[in-house]
Design brief:
alpha/beta; Rossmann fold; Conserved hypothetical protein from pyrococcus furiosus pfu- 392566-001, ParB domain; six-stranded mixed β-sheet; 11 strands; Universal_stress_UspA; Universal stress protein; ParB/Sulfiredoxin_sf
Amino acid sequence: MRDSSNSESARILVPLTLAPISESKLPVAEEQARALDAELILLHVLPPGTLDPDTVTPAEAAARAFLDTAVARLRRAGLRARQLIRDGPIAETIVEVARSLPARLIILGMNVRATLPSILRGSVTDQVIRHAPCPVLLVRPDPAAGVGHPLRSFAEDAARAGPLAPRRLGLRTVQVARIVGSVSKVHELGPDFRPLRPSPAEEQRYQQIRQAFLRGEPLPPVELYKLGFGYYVLDGHHRVAAARELSPDAEIDAIVTEFLPLGDAEAWQAFSARQAFEQATGLTRIGATQPGTYSRLEELIEAYRREQGLPDLRQAARRWYGEVFLPLRRRIRELRLMRRFPGERPADIIARIAGWRRRWEERTGERLPLVEALERFAAELDATTDTALERAP
């Protein structure tokens, strides 16, 4: 697996909100990335406490969906780009990320309604400029871009990602929190997927579906488009709205069509690797961004199958998912390890830990359980960061 975390290339940090007006920074970021031969790290900062170790929240899902399309746009232009999600105070988090990367440049947007002196007094921009470990470039956004919709628009996100190719995945179980938008009704719906001005017939239909959910009655699968991390409703807005209201952590059956950016070779490689992994293991709920992750996970499942004396790989995979993968994923989110590897998901980090454990065994002869290997891997990362900070001027 390619270890991009240790790359010696320059990095430019681009904090983004989810509003279209924030995208005014991207053309400037492209120019600077070409001039400096730098990798772009697109950062979105969520409110403190938004990142839940146990589950993906709707706010995190919307941010990941947006950044995935922005990364696809930049890669289509021939640039290196990754995304990073953090939660915490905005200015402090931007500065912390800039130090840890480390960043060669930070690109910030300006408040279009303020004069320059007032921009630089007590604002996030002011705080970042005062404490940034690198130069800060201010970009005046285009106010005509607007602030966007409460739900994500598939059409707008698809346009940002560029030319797409559909691949039908069939029936899947999807986490409701990862359904971030609509294919055709984004202007008609509120953030809860309910109509902004429901007709009596629509309200009656919604209540019928809601009651069916409460009674545990089977309902037809919804139809979703998948783009990057996010899912968008093609058909079944009432069912999604009811599921979100009754249980935000719920899962829902869906017929899924995934759209892949034609210009993103890495995304296609990851998709092909995921298809082979799913066919071999039957696991369809594991997502990774690094193509090599899937083969390493399959090796872990095969080792687990042998240790447990199970005859069938798919049977072993189901048990491994519940007994090994889910606890590791929770601990990775709890330790915030994804902040150390922009663009990667817990599955990618589990694959990293497996590689670290193999090197440890070759060096020491000691075989570690994956859980213990994770803790030592995290401690080693922390020690490395502490040493780097001590050496910083």
